[in-house]
Write a structure and sequence with these properties.
CATH architecture of the largest domain: 3-Layer(aba) Sandwich
Number of helices: 14
Structural class: alpha/beta
Order of helices and strands: EHEEHHEHEEEHHEHEEHEHEHEHEEHHH
Low-confidence stretches: none
Number of domains: 2
Largest sheet: 7 strands, parallel
Shape: globular
CATH superfamily of the largest domain: Glycogen Phosphorylase B
CATH topology of the largest domain: Rossmann fold
Mean pLDDT: 94
CATH class of the largest domain: Alpha Beta
Radius of gyration: 22 Å
Strand order of the largest sheet: 3-2-1-4-5-8-9
Distance between the termini: 22 Å
Helix content: 25-40%
Number of strands: 15
Length: 416
């Protein structure tokens, strides 16, 4: 039975989906009476929501993007000795027979140096596949200059020669170097046997590039919308809602253009590199910036449909599940992970990247009030028949931990 859990995440506060899962998992596990240790490289006490019951350790460093020294950032992005040393010191006082290490994120600050420490220590380890950085240099199987999905074999000559980086080709070469170091010296993913896949979609994409011996455990991220009353959205407003990062690969421009063509109001919640550009181009859109979870769900309850227009794969698209839990139908790109949650009765898919098809789907759905009301009722009922709540998520996480622990003991016994 697992008694100690060491969680690794670049930040000790929530900066995105992986951080939200890492922090909420740590807090929930601490409530079970287990010893929970949270290791990060970037710390912000004012933003951290980690429970006092969680043991917090941090190297107190910058992430790659915000490091004032570019030389230092380039070096530590490849190999962060300080994080490796801190992890090694933590593990020295813990019994590996009762401990599982859970990796959430390492790319932006911790670096793959932590993978080498884990591999050398022999501690049981599991890694959640929040993104594609385990195998893909830019983490997305996506060509950013071309704004299209990349189908090249990761780290092949074609991959290395491809200018797919969001910034520049020299940056891509640095990422290739980082990926090579991660694979050869950091032992990620080769030194890891157990992985958690948040969707079947992402599992299918990653499995060919993970170790042949890898065991992939399916476990969807939880929906945090757990109000006892389980309210359902009032879909009569005729308003379209976008929630997410304001960046090209998320399809936010596509959403703005399609809403304009369809002649429907659009509200956007989120932040990102396009936050100062889009409001001038689309003055009719209501840009509300980043909002706390309570405000996000309030907007869901006052909207008619959610749009997820991502032109990249995604790994899950949790916002779609959150919207369905609120009875908010979804319009989803057919080449992203969230398409698996939409079946025609709780929402529709459109051809990824096709603004004409998206605008038509928006117009058709929002104009047929009776149909969208049926979708809302069905989405709400279907979700709550088998809800993805934090309680079941933590139980599933602990089940995986115990499997990982037992598997590690068998391997250690076999070696002896």
């Amino acid at each position: 039975m697992v008694k100690n859990i060491v969680l690794l995440n670049d930040y000790d506060y929530i900066t995105g989906g992986s951080g939200q899962i890492a922090v909420t998992t740590a807090n929930a596990l601490a409530e079970t009476g287990r010893r929970v240790i949270f290791l990060s490289a970037v710390s912000n006490p004012e933003r951290s929501t980690l429970s006092p019951k969680v043991e917090k350790h941090s190297t107190q460093q910058y992430d790659i993007l915000n490091n004032p020294s570019r030389i230092d950032a380039l070096y530590k992005g490849l190999w962060n000795n300080k994080s490796a040393k801190l992890l090694r010191s933590i593990l020295e006082s813990i019994d590996p027979a009762e401990t599982v290490i859970h990796i959430h994120s390492w790319i932006k600050a911790l670096s793959s140096s932590v993978g080498k420490v884990i591999f050398d220590s022999g501690f049981p380890v599991v890694c959640t596949l929040h993104d594609f950085f385990t195998v893909c240099p830019n983490g997305g199987f996506y060509n950013y200059p071309r704004n299209e999905i990349c189908y090249l074999k990761p780290m092949s000559l074609s991959c290395i020669c491809s200018n797919c980086d969001v910034r520049s080709y020299p940056q891509k070469i640095w990422r290739v170097a980082r990926q090579g170091i991660q694979s050869q010296f950091g032992k990620i993913p080769g030194g890891i046997r157990h992985f958690i896949a948040v969707s079947k979609f992402s599992e299918d994409i990653l499995r060919p590039w993970l170790p042949a011996s890898a065991r992939i455990h399916p476990l969807s991220n939880p929906v945090t919308y757990s109000e006892a009353s389980r309210p359902r959205a009032d879909v009569s407003s005729g308003k379209l809602l976008y929630i997410g990062r304001l960046s090209p690969e998320k399809g936010v421009v596509l959403a703005c253009e399609a809403a304009r063509i369809a002649g429907v109001p659009l509200t956007i919640l989120g932040d990102g590199p396009l936050k100062d550009v889009l409001p001038a181009q689309y003055p009719e859109v209501d840009f509300k910036g980043w909002q706390p979870q309570s405000e996000v769900f309030r907007e869901m309850l006052q909207s008619t449909a959610l749009v997820l227009p991502s032109v990249c794969y995604e790994t899950q698209g949790l916002v779609v599940l959150e919207s369905l839990s609120a009875g908010l139908p979804a319009i989803v790109a057919d080449k992203c992970a969230a398409r698996d949650y939409v079946d025609g009765r709780n929402g529709v898919t459109f051809r990824s990247g096709d603004v004409a098809d998206l605008s038509e789907k928006i117009r058709t759905m929002l104009q047929d009030r009776d149909k969208v009301e049926e979708m809302s009722k069905y989405a709400h009922t279907r979700y709550w028949e088998n809800p993805l709540l934090p309680e079941s998520f933590i139980k599933g996480t602990l089940d995986i931990y115990n499997l990982v622990l037992q598997d590690n003991k068998k391997e250690a016994y076999a070696v002896k």
